[in-house]
Amino acid sequence: MIVTIASGKGGTGKTSIAVNMALSLESAQLLDCDIEEPNAHLLLHPKLNRTQPVYTTIPKIQEQQCDHCGECAKFCHFNALFATKEKILTFPELCHSCGGCAIVCPKESQADHKGFFVVEADSPATATNFFGPMTVQVREVVPFSEVAKTL
Q1: Which of 13, 48, 54, 97 would you call most buried, defined as having the most Cβ atoms within 10 angstroms of its Cβ?
Q2: Where along the chain do its domains lie?
């Protein structure tokens, strides 16, 4: 069973509900994906024993290889790439790290990796707690949850 408590005005008790639900279950995994202030750890008092940097793939156009065909920009549904006749502009804050731009590029433009945040984890008896402060305006929840699965 997957339960998500998300999106709401600050101070309404989302973290309190999530923590209590996690503690009431026999085996639970709690991902604190609060963008500005993940604070479930303040209620759980975990002993953090694992950390892992999270990297996401952001396109980096290799100008010497690029012929500015615009296939990458056509593919991107999030407008992270904009093609002109002279240059491909990249907007990393809009990128969802799907890698599709690199797949459709006929000239094999390469992708660059950029670290965004660190995931910290513990393993108390009743819950596994993962958290990592994220950057406002950067889509990090998917890479965050993917890394949490491996810890």
Answers
A1: 97
A2: 14-54+121-150, 61-109
Total count of residues recorded for the chain = 151
In tens, the pLDDT along 74-105 reads: 999 999 999 999 999 988 878 888 888 888 98
Answer yes or no: are the C-beta atoms of 32 and 127 closer than 8 Å. Answer: no
Parallel, antiparallel, or unpaired: how do β-strands 81-83 and 50-59 relate? unpaired
What residue type is 32 in one-letter code?
A: D
Q: DSSP state, 92?
A: G
State which fold the 61-109 domain adopts: Alpha-Beta Plaits (3.30.70)
CA distance 94 to 118: 20
Helix H or strand E encompassing 30: strand 28-32
Within 10 Å of residue 112's Cβ, how many Cβ atoms?
12
SS3 for 131?
A: strand
Cα separation of 54 and 144, whole Å? 7
C-alpha torsion sign, points 16, 21, 23, 28: negative
Q: Give CA–CA dist 102/3, Å, rounded.
A: 34
